[in-house]
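Reopening closed ticket. The problem is back. First fold of the pair:
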Amino acid sequence: MNEAPIRPVSDNGRDDVVIPFVVEPLETRGRVVRLGPSVDAILNRHGYPEPVARLVGEAAALTVLLGSSLKFEGRFQVQTRTDGVIDLLVVDFDAPDRLRAFARFDAAALDVALAEGRSAPAQLLGTGHLALTIDQGADMSRYQGVVALEGQGLEEAAHQYFRQSEQIPTVVRLAVAESIVGSEAHWRAGGLIVQFLPDSPERRRLPDLSPGDAPEGAEQQPHFAEDDAWNEARSLAATVEDHELVDPTLSSERLLYRLFHERGVRVFDPQEVQEACRCSRERISDMLTGFTPQERRDMIGDDGKIGVTCEFCSTHREFDPQDFDPQDRESSDTA
């Protein structure tokens, strides 16, 4: 077996990249994500209030952490639907590198929440569910995992997902901050995921796995002792600080070295991330074609056009109704 080449730790801090890594002595692997211009563009475009921006930034980091593991060109989506101030949050990651996001919130309810001191992301989410969806295209079936949101934040919801759906011991850390560059403030987001993936599936079993919705009287899972290697890896990952995940002067490689240098950590080629929307005039035209003629007439504005604004990138496009209903053009020409 060939030894992996050893080189000095790079202090070149790069934004909008994901760095996969493995700690072989602990049979642990994971990814570090750093988002700079991509998440800054998303948040500034929408002009979100600071508490909303922080939650969208967390969701973007989580989505890239999970979506960048896809080995095919498809879409990974994180979506929340709740009764909270932020009742809808959608983040799409189109593999291998495209990110987009938006949130819907009640501005009046946000003012009340802030006046009452309820500004934490978990408090603004409220009660509902978090859905994680993998879409491999029209010819493949979609996979969706759902986690109940009951007052917890995105980090804990992600932990629940891996305990219940994937049954893989996992640690997820997320952080968002505003970085001052000169006289301007820019948003940054970062994340770390660490997973225990030994060759033996028995070693991977979670000791506290809940039977979930199993009927009363169903056989319970046997108790598995905590694996020493995972216990060490989890403890090391737990030492990471929020500021380390978003510090532009601290490279991802240096952060990983800080965490796992005693055991040895191997990093792989970085994967770049860019803010990009999949919307286009052709896609929206196809969508409008799917409506009935009456529904399209109801969409016509005072200027006689059908206007559509993308919720993700805020691009506004206008369409001539007569392009979809030629009979309307004929009627107009006859008149």
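Second fold of the pair, where the issue appears:
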Amino acid sequence: MTDHPTGPTSQSFVSQRLRLHYVDWGNPTAPPLILLHGGRDHCRNWDWVAQDLRRDYHVIAPDLRGHGDSAYSPSGDYSMSSFVYDLAQLIHQQKLAPVRIVAHSLGGAITLRYAGAFPETVEKIVAIEGLGPSPAMLAERAQRTPMERIRTWVAETRKLAGRTPRRYASIEEAFGRMQAENSHLTPEQARYLTVHGVSQNEDGTYSWKFDNYIRSFSPTDFTPAEIQQLWASITCPVLLVNGAESWASNPEKDGRMAHFQNARLIEYERAGHWVHHDRLDDFLADVRAFL
């Protein structure tokens, strides 16, 4: 693995009047492959994966709205439906269907909803811990009344409105925070992700690129049963990926995998939530075999 892959070209597309950024790794005559990152992350977190897969695929990695170099939502709207629309627009505008998608966490949840609504446009999916909250967490949330959910959302969003993005005095300080977030990262990986994940403020300090409003989760969304219906509507093969040391629930053990028509699971030892960083070589071998 090289610590500093050669870079792609930066492009953009428009969705709901927002200019959203993506990187294109070239090889446009090859089959299209989208790499979709998770929450509070950015498209360059895929660089090591993209550097390998670009040989055989036309790899495109977007920044979600409010992340990386994509525009912030003026209204602070980061609902799942908006994220799904953005993915639909990228695929539609760039004529990528039928497409393969490798996605992580929030990106996985977006991809699985999109593929359930537009199954004819997706050929294969790799979802790294992208099924969202575990059944136990959802059962706990279900105990809250609609009034409680809305009041909590209003209070949390109001608090975010007054929150100032954290400022780091130097890249080194931000780099330390990145290392603390994922102890599996090598120093080279953590530094690379930090450099691409921060922007410099006018006073010379650094802040993470993502919009703080993405921390606010809408009180209105599909029910667990409706999300399961979307999973069941996916017609392409799905590879579910979990890290044995992650907080995420194992979808085979908790029963969620049973809602898919054609899915299998790989769980990686010595890996946390970011399996594609923690076990890169093994992950690439399994993804290549699956794709």
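Update: turned out to be a display glitch only; the data is intact. The chain has a mean pLDDT of 95. The beta strands are 9-15, 18-24, 32-36, 58-62, 99-104, 122-128, 198-200, 206-208, 238-243, 263-268. Please close again.
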